[in-house]
Design goal:
- It is built from 15 helices and 16 strands.
- With 374 residues, the chain is of the alpha/beta class.
- It folds into 2 domains: 264 residues, TIM Barrel (Alpha-Beta Barrel), CATH 3.20.20.105; 94 residues, no CATH class.
- Strands 4-14-13-12-11-10-6-5 form an 8-stranded parallel beta sheet. A 3-stranded antiparallel beta sheet has the order 1-2-3.
- Helix 7 packs parallel to helix 8 and helix 10 packs antiparallel against helix 15.
- The N and C termini lie far apart (41 Å).
Amino acid sequence: MRGRLQQRIDARASNGNARATTIELVRGTLQTPAFMPVGTVGSVKGLTTETVRRVGAQIILGNTYHLYLRPGTEVLTRFGGLHRFMDWDGPILTDSGGYQFFSLRQFTKTTDEGVQFRSHIDGSRHLFTPEKVIQIQAAIDSDIMMVLDDCPALPATPRRLGEALRRSTLWARRSVEAAREVRGALFGIVQGGTDVTLRLEHLSELASLPFDGLALGGLAVGEAPAEMYETLEAVAPQMPEDRPRYLMGVGRPQDLIEAIHRGIDMFDCVMPTRNARNGQVFTRFGKLNLRNARFAGSDAPMDPTCTCTACRRMSVGYMHHLFRAGEMLGPILATEHNLSYYLRLVKEARESILADRWDAFRGRCQQDWEGESS
């Protein structure tokens, strides 16, 4: 199982656990820290793949649950996988659907066999087992596959957390067996909520299996940021040094920087794209709500340090107008901007680690964001 990706550590921060690595995959090289734009159903909403490449994405994320329901494995197999289907020649990581079963839990029933669920599209009934999830990701031709896991909502009782760990380990072992003939790399997912003892126990169990990388799941699902940081502080540095470390579904720019400081390599989150569609953009100096009347008529850019299309060529006043007028160009430009911002942030983080300036960079980010409450 091991050996489907190659990773080397390029540099470590003098203070803290931040690190810069290079991951070699079949379809390309991933330099970390890295942020993966979310292309749930085979598209990063509102953007062409050319734009996604241009803003600096090295890898994108697709979702097994959604791609299974639409367009379906038959169509993906006919096209030879998701890459050709969506015209993306770089690496693709696919989530297993575990988070969707968490968020759509009123439609699911989870047992040791797998997850029975009703489609949110048409109500049809399906069963995801660890083996079936691997088969679907093989049809997608994922470069990095995630195992099916049991993701509990937080706060959770010790009994529920224990059940999630036991089941996730059971499914992880079955996933390893199912993936032996599949060419994509396979990552395990560590659960345990914010209970550090449980997290470390589960990490020990999964680290003994031949996974190519390990992820932390079940965070940013209801706990306070401080609790998440405390968990990362204790767990991330204990993850195997020779394998990529992935924090799933996180999050705010502040969260990325603090997680990098604690040793995380890879991230994904819908926040930059979803918030853009609602008129919120991230800038070096904090968030802007483009619908705010104070931007009407302003000829300043959204972010003078940004090189996206809107910041180079348009004013925040024009962006305000697009959202107030309901023009589809507004969400498109805001999405490009937010992804540009996130991808530039992790690129600058990597450069600061390589140059042994991590503390200064982290401090500058914290100062720029000072006063933000969310």
